Amino acid sequence: MARAARKIATAAALGGGGLTALGATAYGLLIAEGLLARRAIGQPHGLDGPASDGTYGDYPGEPLKIAMLGDSTSVGLGLTDPGQTPGALLAYGLASVAERPVQLLVAGKSGAPSSELGDQVDKALAMEPDIAVIFVGANDIITQTAPATAVRHLAKAVRRLRDAGVEVVVGTCPDLGTVRPIGQPLRWVARRWSRQLAAAQTVAVVDAGGRTVAFADLLGPEFATNPTEMFGPDRFHPSARGYAQAAYTVLPSVCAALGLWPEPRPGEALQPIYLAAATAAEEPGTEVTATRVDGRATGLHGKWATLFRRRLGETFNDTRRLTSRLGETLDDA
After folding, report:
1. pLDDT value at position 79?
2. Cα(168)–Cα(68) distance, rounded to whole angstroms?
3. Which element (helix H / strand E) includes 324?
4. d(Cα 71, Cα 77) in Å, to the nearest integer?
């Protein structure tokens, strides 16, 4: 996995393409089997998520600004209640921690691959956000986009945001091997490709100055026991409960990026970036961010990174309202 991440990230940096991380045979298999999977997957409600732009949190002060970018996961495709979208849940949670109102802009678009992030960044920058959250990658797999190409577009988007002073958190490509309508051997191919792309995304995002949170098989264990609760009617996109789980996983890193949550202790889970990326791709909820060792950002094996799995409520005593809010959402979904 680390070797594949290095290969993809290097190709992205040099402008190369390459067919895929898996080779021509698996590529052809993915296309053929993908046609069967599309017939097995139903249709979601609507073409996009419910409009959830607005201001959240009944607090005084200047609003923090958050922009959601990416694909259908960023907009909450399949939901009908704006308050259940990932953006709204992140805005509610961030407002609770910061005790300030939070203004939300959803620039993401259902079906968007990484190549469409440029227009979304334009829209986000016009808002002058404090932080941008990007959920992207699944459509790069579905459209058979070369991993290096997808990573290159993502890295460019992150750099543009960071150059403008915007903090960036990226939820990496989820493991499409957990989607049960996709049969074998496509499911194995999708799982391997998803995780290789997620690892390469991590390398590129951290190098561009952002931080990542691994989705991996975030819904996998829950899907096995509660498939009707974690996935929506199309059996591909998350249900309200599944979207809440994604927001719950990303929120602590969003708070940390804005200085509202402690960073990990120096040296905690310290690894070279390629190894860190490979590790995170297998562990849902793992955050990867750049760090320094003895004042140096890089070592013999590349850039240094810290892996950290944040958990709500472990750090601050005053996050009970936040945990309660998200807990109620999970229970009501």
Report:
1. 86
2. 10
3. helix 320-332
4. 9
